[in-house]
User: What shape does this take?
Amino acid sequence: MKLRALLVSALSLLLISPAATAEAEQQPIKVMSRNLYLGADVGVALAKIPNMPAAAQFMWDQVQKTDFSQRKKILADQIRSETPDVIGIQEATIWYCKAHVWSGKTEVFNFTQELLAELGGDYIIAEKDGTQANNPGYSIGPIPFLTKVHDPKTFQSLFGQNDADCGFQIGDALLIKKSLAQYVNQVGNSEYKAVYKVVPTLMEIYRGYSWADITVQGTNVRFVTTHLESLWDANKVPKAADQARQLVDDLKNTKSPIVVLGDFNSDPRDPRPLDAPNPGEQPTASEKCPAGATVCNAYKVMREAGFTDSGPDASDPSTYSWGMNALLTGPDSKRAQAALAMGNRLGFTDRLDYIFVKNGVNVLTSKMIGQTAPYGTDHAGVVTELNITALGSVVSAPLDAHNRFPISFWKGVGLLLLALFTWRIVRRFRHR
Assistant: This one.
């Protein structure tokens, strides 16, 4: 009887498994885009330059107040609630410090790794052949005297002193369910050629993207996560628009389905007429960039290139995704009333976050998350369910890496001279 039961059981598995597998392959693919937030108001910090020590201390103090050890719990709860298969992360930040000029860097906070640990091993960074879909992005490294911050509580336990030189690295990462690891076909990272220069040669902001080809629903799908530039100059094409054009060009030969997740720092209303409400200080109209011009709008660049905005409707004020204050205690007080007037009762004034699809991807559902307290970040997120309609499993050629831009010899010399100059100024004031 036992032998008969085993045979019946085995036969049942043979009959059921193919159907069950086919059904599983047709399950919707859920994807999420989430900006983790650096943890500090970069705009205020930049306004303090050339007083680099003041800018560094301001940012460090805010990062401590926004406390990622608490934020990661909120973010992890949202992820567990939605159970996305793929998550595009932006502002995947590492804060690191060094005790002395000659010492190595010590990681103090690593937002991506902390979030993954909070998720209990259910998610990993997409990886293939030793390469991770984790673009380090740009960084402002610890510079002696220029980025020294005071924090006895943190540094006494790490270095046995009250001060340290600190900096950060901010990039993109593509997280996937651990169960998808065996279906990753290719992985890569790339850089945008358009660079925003805060201080030419000495301080330039690089942006890029991470990507992975993953077999889902029996088809190879190319997933991309990116963060386009937020800073812009009057009467110039925003770098975000230039970066979107490069992304479109990089992806033009991709034959497989494409899903692009990201913070595009672009609202469909940009560039705004000068007399239009603009509390988020998005790009404004100029001779170079007339109101609503596609050439100056990253969102429209993607749409005109044939990418579908998976939704929710970006023109609907209820879907705006940015507007929290820097300390994440609620809507920015300067923008709350403007948001209400626009039709968003939650304090958000701009839609910056999107999931774009192309080449045989059907959008089933989409929604915004993280628009109400408790806030894990200053951005709301986007979650979309997709069905892959393209046939076959063609793996497209890998994307061009567009190698990173290392610090040149003369840039290094410039940084050293700037550090020495600041050191002399500091010494002079200390001896008064």
In short: The chain is about 30% helix and 30% strand.
